[in-house]
Structure formats: structure tokens, C-alpha cells
Amino acid sequence: HSQKQFMQDLTATQKARYDFFKNQRDYLRNMTNIAEDLRFSERDERKKMAPSLVESMSTPPNVYIPLCNSTDVWRRGNSA
Predict the structure, then answer these.
(1) What is the rounded CA–CA span in Å between residue 23 and residue 15?
(2) 69, 79, 67, 71: which is closest to 32 by C-alpha?
(3) Residue 19 burial by CB count (10 A; 0-12/13-18/19+): exposed, middle or buried?
(4) Is 67 helix (H, G, I), strand (E, B) or coil?
(5) CB–CB of 19/35 below 8 Å?
(6) What does the pLDDT profile of the chain (80 residues) look like in tens digits?
(7) S-S: 41 plus which of 17, 32, 45, 67, CB 3.0-4.6 Å?
């Protein structure tokens, strides 16, 4: 099966689950890339750069934010 055929064969529930985990992986990759971009900058420079980098990052509608407690109330990533 090709990737395209694989995606077509998924049920709606499987596709939703796939999309959630793919979005989560992409979101964490974007966060890590921002951290790497900031890593070698001085603290004052990082504080200026970080907000614009985060604002330009794409945030999926449903995402687990790993910077909270696992027992925190679940909410959409863009409201955190």
C-alpha cells in the first residue's frame, strides 16, 4: 500500500486518531525547533525573540501541551 492508499483505507475514527497524533508530533517538532533557535542566544535576546517565534508557529486545534501536569483540565492548545 502506498501512503495515499493507506490514508484512504482508514475509517473516520482511525483518521481522526491519526490526525491527532500527527498534529501532536508536528507541534512538538515545531516547539523543539524554536527551542533550538533560541538556545544559543543570550537570555535578553531570547526573551525578545520567543514571542514572535511562538506566534508564527502553527498550533493544531487539539494538542496535548507537555508543559502542564497530566492531571490538569484538558483544554484546547490555543487557549493555554
Answers:
(1) 12
(2) 67
(3) middle
(4) coil
(5) no
(6) 588 888 899 999 999 999 988 998 998 899 999 999 999 999 999 999 999 998 998 888 777 766 666 676 766 665 55
(7) 45
